[in-house]
Request: fold
Amino acid sequence: MSKVPYKGTFAETRLPLILIHLNRNRLTGTLEIKASSFTKKVFLEKGEAIFASSTNVDDRLGETLLKVGKITLEQFDRAAELLKKGGKRLGAILVDLGFLSPKELFWGVKFQVREIIYSLFLFEDAEYEFVEGDVPSDEVIKLKMSMGNLIYEGVKRIDNLTRIRREMPSLKDTLMLSDDPLSLFQNIELSSHDKKLLSLVDGSKTIKEILDQSWLGSFEAMKILYVLFYTGMLVKKENESEPAESIIVDDLLKELSEDEMAFDQRVESFLKKIEMSDYYELLGVDRKADESKIKKKYMRLAKEFHPDKYLKTEDLSLKDKLTTIFDALTDAYNNLKVSALVGTNGDDQASAASKQKLDPKAAKEEAERLHQKGVSEFKAGNFKDSISNLKKATSLDIKNSQYWNTLSLVFTKIPDGMNQAEKALLEAINLEPDNADFLANLGLLFMKAGKNPRAKTQFNKALILDPENKKAQKGLDDLKNMKK
Reply:
């Protein structure tokens, strides 16, 4: 995911992207949003929105309860008079007067908090700032609602067609299911229309084709795609050679069986398994399994142990347990898929992965040594040895984008290496999507392969991030000269 600034405007960075970033990084603090006449705050704990406040009079508890019909205007005025005398809060006064039960008050506060958050999605140019740190514990009633569902409900309130079209990919672009299980398996309560439209997304249809095949009007269908896009369930397909997502939508939407939902014992058992298993054993796959089988098992387990599953229980510790399991599964998958990505031997890969798991610091040091050795071999023209060392470096430190970038460069120097070069470079871009040099390098790869339109796209993306990028500038100039 791209880096998100902690201070700026919604015109520069959309609210869903901010919330997703804070959620994925499990940050605790206060997100403050300033409009012309009021300020609203969202309080987050480990990436979850737990409370919200507003200086807008219309967002106050009494006004909210009145608007939804929980109290009458007469009851509101009576409670407001007593509030002026001090000593008690409005909610307590309403309960004392018998206008609300404690349960209704609790519902009202949660409804008020949600409505404050939902209202933020309608802002197009407000200022925001996230300040990391502890949140006030008094008066906070935790929402216990998934971030995905908050974004889903908030984005659904947007009815501005001009804004929706501006913030969506082009009608000519192709949508596909996200490859990220954190986005796919969020606890989002999709409507029947959403599910039906989602079934049309197969990784090959353009947005226009989906709209044309929809039984809904164009605006309603576009709005659903917009909502699914901003919750992260759908993404724009960047690489046309990339295969369509193999996950079947029916399987994505299918609930787990009752046996699988015997959950507490399964969670505790899996936590113990993390300590005793290597990556193959953790995912439950054969050591000779290909990437497709590894991915299928990973997605299945990621769905079962998604952190949003904590919403269905009262166990306050479950979220941390599920997060631990999910991180371990993702770490296992990321390490094992390297063998398919760059062609390393499965047993060697398992050995390298185990080194990283057992001693991360030593593994990173060894990875850097191998990277430097790979660079030296490259400079000496020993491309085969260079690739061997760089593959080992990426397997030991899979999240180092520079290692993947270097590996891509070396692959371009060997016969039939362009496909592997592209895969390695895409991995670097996935890890660091706002690196203009990586995008320019991808443009050069496409240009070398004769894919000039795609090369131009990458050069332009690089220049948006870094207007002074010389590789991208030269690439565009070379493309122009080709046409003369």
